[in-house]
Amino acid sequence: MQNKKNNFNGCPSTIGEAKVICYTLIDEGHQFTASCKQIAAGKITGSMYGLAICQYEGEDSFYLFGCYENWESITDTWHQTLEEAIEQAEFEYKGTKSTWIKKA
């Protein structure tokens, strides 16, 4: 597996129009659980390059985005709290709880 940290250009401040709160790269320190089946373009997605927890202006809720290398959002889940988004990420990728990087 390629070491993503060596090629990392950084997560943007926004993904689409949502402000990035925190993010993590998915690397060999994380285990893709396949516990959550997400579909994009009619196909079940595999492991993402990175995850970002974002928030839209004026909203109290959070979105967990699964992203490609260019931080384009491919999958998303809605969460009432930041803690719920972090728990969902851990459900999908074991090991993420300790690797979040605060952006905002």
Descriptive notes:
This protein is mainly beta and 104 residues long. The protein has one domain. It contains 1 helix and 10 strands. The strands form 3 sheets. Strands 1, 2, 6, 7, 8 and 10 form a 6-stranded antiparallel sheet that branches. A two-stranded antiparallel sheet has the order 3-9. A hairpin with a 2-residue loop joins strand 1 and strand 2 (18-25). The longest helix is centred in the C-terminal third of the chain and has 11 residues, at 82-92. The N and C termini lie far apart (30 Å).
Compressed to H and E, one letter per element, the order equals EEEEEEEEHEE
**Given the C-alpha coordinates, what overall shape results?**
globular
Number of domains: 1
Mean of residue pLDDT? 88
Question: What proportion of the residues is helical, as a percent range?
Answer: 10-25%
| CA-based gyration radius | 13 Å
Secondary structural class: mainly beta
Spans of 5+ residues with little confidence (pLDDT < 50)?
1-7
Quick structural overview:
Helices cover 11% and strands 38% of the residues.
Key terms for this structure?
10 strands; six-stranded antiparallel β-sheet; globular; 1 helix; two-stranded antiparallel sheet; 11% helix; 104 residues; mainly beta
Secondary structure elements and pairings:
Elements: E1 14-15, E2 18-25, E3 31-32, E4 39-40, E5 43-44, E6 50-55, E7 62-67, E8 73-79, H1 82-92, E9 93-94, E10 101-102
Antiparallel strand pairs: 1-2, 2-6, 2-10, 3-9, 4-5, 6-7, 7-8
